[in-house]
Structures are given as structure tokens and as C-alpha cells.
Structure prediction request, 757 residues.
Amino acid sequence: MKINAQGIYYRDLNSTIREAVLAGTDQIELNNVNGQYFIGDGINKPVTITINGVPGNDLAAFMNGATIIVNENGQDNIGNTMNAGKVIVHGHAGDVLGYGMRGGKIHIRKDVGYRVGIHMKSYQENKPVLIAGGKAGDFFGEYMAGGVLILLGMFTDDPAKDKHGYLFGTGMHGGVIYVRGGVDESRLAKEVGVFELDDDDRAALEGYVAEFCQDFKLDVQEVLKERFVKVLPRSKRPYGNMYCPMPK
Amino acid sequence: MLYKSVNESFNEFMIERSDPKCIRCKVCVRQCAYEVHSYVEADDRLAEDNTLCIGCRRCSALCPTGAITIRSNQETFKKNESWSAAHIRNVYAQADTGGILLTAMGNPAKYPIYWDHLLLDASQVTNPSIDPLREPMELRTYLGKKPDRIEVVHNEKTGKPELKTKLSPQLTLEYPFIFSAMSYGALNLNAHRAMAAAAQELGTIYNTGEGGLHKDLFKYGKNVIVQVASGRFGVSEQYLNAGVGIEIKIGQGAKPGIGGHLPGEKVDDQISETRMIPMGSDAISPAPHHDIYSIEDLRQLIYALKEATNYTKPVSVKIAAVHHIAAIASGVARAGADIITIDGFRGGTGAAPQVIRDNVGIPMELALAAVDSRLRDEGIRNQVSIVVGGGVRNSGDAIKAIALGADAINLGTSALLAMGCTLCQRCYTGKCPWGITTNNPYLAKRLNPEIGAEKLVNLVHAWGHEMKEILGGMGLNALESLRGNRYKLRAVGLTEKDMNLLGVMPAGE
Prediction:
């Protein structure tokens, strides 16, 4: 099914998508998308939505099992509290990606903005994975409680920019971050430490990277030939010692 | 008592035990979650460590012979009008630990309580009062956006009038009370079962709070508001669709402007599963939602939630009562909220820094009056319902809140009291001796969810009854007729300015 989104108000566009999904459509192509909000919001069927154009904020928010392919750039809040499914963005994307994400995958080919992967969480088989092929802004992995963040730093629109910003992993208390080519330790938050990958890490990482490379037709070996490091929280309770009970 | 630090011996409570009455049953030893009592085998007697006592009164309540009395420690520091014993002891505790003083439940400090300065009207001679025992009396409350005007058309087929205006989704409450947002994690599953079952029985609503909805409670969906807070715990597409409404938690009256850390001690396997965080880790709610830095961003989250639920559920935005509450509420209404929930500075909490709880925010009475007036002045009062919480102690306070402009009342502390809480203010320890704010199975089983539900139902029935009596006395037969009707309130002992803010006349006028 093809929809020309030119000039269509987001509410009408999303209502059309919802009705199509409800009617059992499993392939939707949106053309001329120009900043419409909330595409794929709350969709709970395994439909594939291909977007030509730039979708607006909160793409795939609360999404539960659909696949969204964006052939250009994305904006802010992609995969906000997403539960399952996949988002593939062939360009760069904005701030606060994967906020509170609980499962599924977000693959961004190029750069991402600030506060990416904030408070991602996981439980058993629900394990969100967010991979950014380019560079990231400040607060990468802030408050992270679970899941996997991967930063490659390879595909960027801004070669002069640093691979990642300040306060990397601030407040992190669960999950893992893999970074290709090491991190700038002066920019790490005090709650995290840098570790070498073990065999389990390498096996998991290879799987994630292989899928990422498949989505963007990239050479897996090229991506994996550089050394990766692992960033982990030092404690499950970064603020556990901050308080003093009222005297009895 | 031996081997304590000096500061620990300035304890607040003393345990008095009557030896002739004590039958050595050791109930006190088993019941005390703080290990105050112990049995001395050699002497066949019970002993106590007063320094550990938090004054919850579990032991004295359960002692079968009434042998135990908890008293406040009369031993004092030198009298000082500036430095109370509490100030002194807090400094000692912080000097020992370097920590932020942690406390729980609502602000207990001595600030004016405006409810106690407001009086209600009643009918005498010139209009008749109504007897609610024999005449219908309406407490039903609808929460949600109301249309500016309604259009009724004649249906040619049925020959009957028909509403043409499309109404926004509404929550229907048979009583104007909601069991307030107290998260699963802060409270245990038994407490949540009790609130959910009571809400179902009463035809009202229970708010999940920010810890998600346990899988066993999805069946209560028609009586549930699901909350979305900055930690996004337990928030999924299924969760958003599980209840009849959604609440975005921006702030809480006990701790406006700051986030929350549910202590790792309380995060067991079930809470870990529901919240999707590691067992034993602190559940960290960031201070802001990092996708909301402005009213425009709030609008974006409101509509993200509406899109996710196909515009079938009203969205509430909960904010703490703070200085510019009226302007903030106006912004929230314009951002598309259907309900604004205002939490006053007496609202409870499972854990908050004491300095925040006792010093930040404003009384709900003033906030409510300011918001209701502002929204009326701007002509947008119909676009939102107002729910208030934080310091409603009885049906009198509740009905005064309705007269000041509230649509419904959040019951938090009163609901906990109904389930057995004694306001010892130690919820953050996870050792609640009454089995409410603890996830320790040994303690949690002290709260029987069925009995808890029954008590909550009783409380709301009682308050509902009292409200009907008050309404009937005023010659009103529906709560709707009192809503925002400040003419039915008079003030005693308030300043001119207070009365202006509250929009009430002095008694006698």
C-alpha cells in the first residue's frame, strides 16, 4: 500500500496507517513525508512501513512489533518507550533516541544527537539494542538500566566532530555499551568504567553488527576489524549511598 | 543499647513494658520489623532497644495483654525555641553520614491548613434541605474534556433527539475519589490488589503510579489509570491500553522538581519484571522527562500517548503545586491534557529528601483556587477536569475542595491509613511493619488484600455518605451543583489576601 503524505496532517496520516494495519496490510510505503509526528506510534502488528522523506518526532513511539525503514534522516525521540520491532534510519537522527526503550532494535546509519539510549531497560528476553553508525552527542546512555548501546563512530556528516560527547553513561546502572575504537575516558561519567570484551561480548557484538551491516549493505569485517571496548556501570546503585535515614 | 554511637542514643521513642502484664509470648519480637524487642532467655524476660524504635506502634497494637506502651522520649536537650530536638538530631545524623536526609509521607511541618479556616453553608428556612436517606443524591463524576457547546439533532428514524457533538473520552467515577498514584514497588502487590479491587467495587479508579501494572492486575483495567513517569517503568503499548486513562507524572507534591530513587532494597523479582530493571538496583526516575523540556514537548508526549491509544483515553497531567501553578496549569490545558492533577505540598511519598518535602511547594487549597480561577478567566475550564490531592483528611476537606473547584480528589495517605498505616514515615526502608510499603514476603503478608479492599470500600462509602448529608443540608442534590461553587464556603481567621486568593467571603458576610 502506498500513501502520498504530501501536505497531510499527522493525525490523518496516522489514522490512515492505523486503519490499514488493522485491515491486515503488511507493507506500507509513505512518500513525501515531511515532518509528520508519531508515525508507527503504538503499532502492534508486524507491518513494515517504508518512509521516503523525513519523519517527525516520536517515530515508533510505544511501537510494539512493527518495522520502520526511513530512507532519509530521522528527527528526535525515535523509539520512545518502544517495546518491540525495528527502526532503520539510513541517514542521521536527533536527540533522545530510544528513551525508556524496552525491546526491539534501532539502527541509525550515521550520527545521533544528545541523550541517546536514556533509561533503556531490559528483562530476560526483552533486550533493546540501539546502534549508531556515526557519532553521538553528550549524555550517551544516561540512566541506562538495561539493553545494549553500540557506537561505531564511522559514518558521519561531520568528520571534525568527536566520536562522543561529555557525561557518557552518566547515572548508568545496568546494560552495556560497546564502542568501536575506544572511548575518551576524560568524557566518561563517574558511574561507569571501561572494560575489555570477553568471548560472550564478542559473539553478541558480532551478531548485532552483522545485522546492522546487512541493513545498510556494509562490510561486517571492515566494521569489526577495529578494537571495541565495553562500558559498564560500576554499581547497580549509583546513588545508593547518597542518603541518610532520619534519626530514630 | 550497648555499643551505640552517642548520637544514636538521643532516640525519639521509649518503650514501656509492664512486667506483670507480659506473658512472654514474644509477639513483639516477631512483629517488630526493626528488631527493637528481644527475649532474654536467662532471665525469662523481654528486653528492648529504644534507639531502634520508629514509633510505628505495631508491637503495642498486637501485644495481647496490652503490656507495651510507646511514649515519646521525654528526655530533652536544653530548651531552645530556635533549635528543636529534631533540628539538632538531624545535624548529628548528617555530620555522621554526609547524606541527604531521607524521609517519607507528607509534609508534617506546621504550616497553615486552609481547610481548617473554611466553613460550609447549609439551608435554613428560605430553601429546603434535602434528606439523602430518602431522596436521590448524585455523586457521579465524569473526568475529561467537556465540549464548549453541545448540539442536539432530531433523528428522523427513531423520532428521538440525538447528540450530534462528538464527546471526548471520559472517566466515570461513582464517587469523586481516586486511589492516588503510589507505585508498585513503593507499595507491594497486596496493597495494589486492595486498591484495584476496591476501585472496582466502588466504581471508581485506581492509579497505578509509576511502577507499571503487575500482570495479575490487568483484569481490573476498567478501573485503572496507568501512569507514565520519567523512568517509564512498565510502560508499553499493552500497558497504555490496559486502563481507561493515562497519567503523565510531571511532579509530586512531596518532592516537586526532583526525581525519585526507589531503593534497591525494595526491588525484588516481581518488581524487577514489572519495571524491567535489574533486581536490587535502584529504580531511578530522572527529575525531568527528558523528552519534555517545554509546554510544546508536553503536548508532544500527550499526543504520542493519544496516538498510541487511538484517542480513546483521557490523558491526565500530574503536577506539583508550586508558585506559578495557575500559569503552568493553563499551559498544560492548552497542551491538550484532559485532566490536570494537582498535588499539594502535603501529598505523601515513599521516599523524599526531607529538605524538599518540608520546604518546597505550596498548599493545595491555594493552588486549586488559583488554577480554577485562572482557567475560568481564560474560558478554558471546560477543557480540563481538575483532580487534587495532598492533604485531604476527611469528607469535609474533600467537599471543600469540590466547592473550591475540584472535580475529584486523590486519596493517598488516607487510603494507606485505611489499610493500616500509622504514618511512621519510614516507607523508604522497605520494612513497613504494617505490610504496606514493604516487599519482604514475611512483612507483606500482614496486609490481606481482601481486608484492605474492604476497608478502602468502607472508607469511601462513609465519606460518600457524609458528602451526601452535607450536600442535602445545603439543599443540593448533586455534587455537580457544588463544583466550583465558592459561595457555599466562608472563611474564618484568614487575611483579606488569603480570602481573595481562595475566592471566598468571610463568615458573616
